[in-house]
């Protein structure tokens, strides 16, 4: 019954979002000629949306207390908006300074493949030589994890 429900859900998502649903899965291709890997996972769009929302929250946290709040409300709500603004500014700086969304990476740019356990799920990211991380989308099953590790091991990238 659970499998049938999942198939119906996938069919609904495919009918609703059409070609966009196909792009959710991650595809990693190795180009031997150029000595590079190409990662198609839609991460650039996701990070762009995250950065836009953080920027809008930051701007809103500046404008809202100045133009909307009365002096009585400014004490508590202003404090909350200041905290929201600081949090979004810190997250925005973190996204820009430590994350990469490059879809095509030369092997000379990659330092290692790192594996982390986050909330019981295995997450992979590529550590680049410029200090940034290129997150790989979540692997769906064990065979995807094994396949990804084998690919990077065959290419000659250290797995840590």
Short summary:
The protein is of the alpha+beta class and 160 residues long. It has helices at 2-17, 19-22, 43-67, 76-98, 142-155, and strands spanning 27-31, 36-40, 104-106, 110-118, 121-128, 133-135, 158-159.
Gyration radius, to the nearest Å?
Answer: 21 Å
Count of separate DSSP helical elements: 5
Structural class: alpha+beta
Number of strands: 7
Distance between the termini: 39 Å
Integer average pLDDT: 81
Q: Please write the string of helix (H) and strand (E) elements.
A: HHEEHHEEEEHE
Transmembrane segments: 48-68, 74-94
Keywords: Membrane, Transmembrane, Transmembrane helix
Index terms:
160 residues, alpha+beta, PH-domain like, 2 domains, four-stranded mixed beta sheet, three-stranded antiparallel beta sheet, 5 helices, 7 strands, elongated, transmembrane
